[in-house]
Each structure stands twice: as structure tokens, then as C-alpha cells.
Prior knowledge:
mainly alpha; single chain; 5 helices; about 0% strand
Amino acid sequence: xxxxxxxxxxxxxxxxxxxxxxxxxxxxxxxxxxxxxxxxxxxxxxxxxxxxxxxxxxxxxxxxxxxxxxxxxxx
Length: 75
């Protein structure tokens, strides 16, 4: 039997609560909040201003190690 989207969301929240508790579940959800704005529109605005060389430079810089907070969580 296929579950509805609402059932999946409810089970997901319950799994988080069971594993983390209510307070840490709220902290987890806040961490992954969707944010605001229209990313696609904003992306087109700044990409139109970049030259191909600027894009290559940005890509090269992104190859450097990324010491973000996910390393702390995953590692």
C-alpha cells in the first residue's frame, strides 16, 4: 500500500523525535529550513554578470577543501 505524502512526513517527524527528542528535532529542522527568495532568479542575475574566466576561477577555488560544518557531523 502506498503512503500519502502526509503519512510519510508524519512518520519522518516521529522518527526524528524518537531518535533525537523534541528539542533536538526542532534544532535539526531549523538547520535545514528552506530560506527565502527565488534562488533561480537570483542565480541568473549574478551569472549573467560573470565572464567565462570568472566562472572557471570560481570553480578552481571551490576545489579547495571545504571545512564546513557537515564535516563535523559526518566525520
